[in-house]
Predict the structure.
Amino acid sequence: VALGHVGGLLIPDRWTEAVGVTEHMYHVVAVVLGTIAGFCTLAGIAILIYRRRTVGPVFAATTRNDKLMYAVLALTILLGLAATVAANIVGGGYNYRETVSPWFRSIFYLRPDPDLMTGVPVLFQLHALSALLLFCIWPFTRLVHMLTAPVGYLTRPYIVYRSRDEQLGMHPPRRGWERVP
Ligand code: HEM
């Protein structure tokens, strides 16, 4: 899905045509691979949500923030898939590379052109809106781990986790406050 978005949104259709890829060829490959990738992504998030709900310690560590993030992420994926299926499999096909893609690129040129999105099928509009909402909350959710790859993990020294309290674990926990020595 990520590669499809780079190919479909960031690379202008003039470039793919210049190397001999016709609109029809692009469309067929995008619909077949996009639909397979979209359903795999949906299956992936379903597995992750199932695990989070059914594995006790994981569910206990789940915050309201996580639930909101899962809802917006799932909505974005569902709307993307719905747009693909509705436009290309149920409908007669929609060339988003003439509208959605130049609009997306116009943001990075710092000359946003929202007019390009006005005539776009509503599912594509809703998909782009929910994606923008997802990007807004991204840094404040667990998804931030995507931007903070633990590159030093392979070379950092071991971390030894042990308690300073020799007594800890040797007596059953008492109710109320522990006395400070
Ligand atoms: C503003 C950002 C985004 C735009 C403009 C955008 C646009 C599009 C477009 C035009 C399609 C149709 C592709 C096709 O029919 O070939 C699509 C499909 C899809 N999008 Fe996005 N998208 C964005 C962000 C995202 C994000 C952040 C996610 C997931 C977290 C996502 C998930 C999907 C999925 C699952 C599909 C269906 C499968 C596929 O065609 O690859 N999109 N999107």
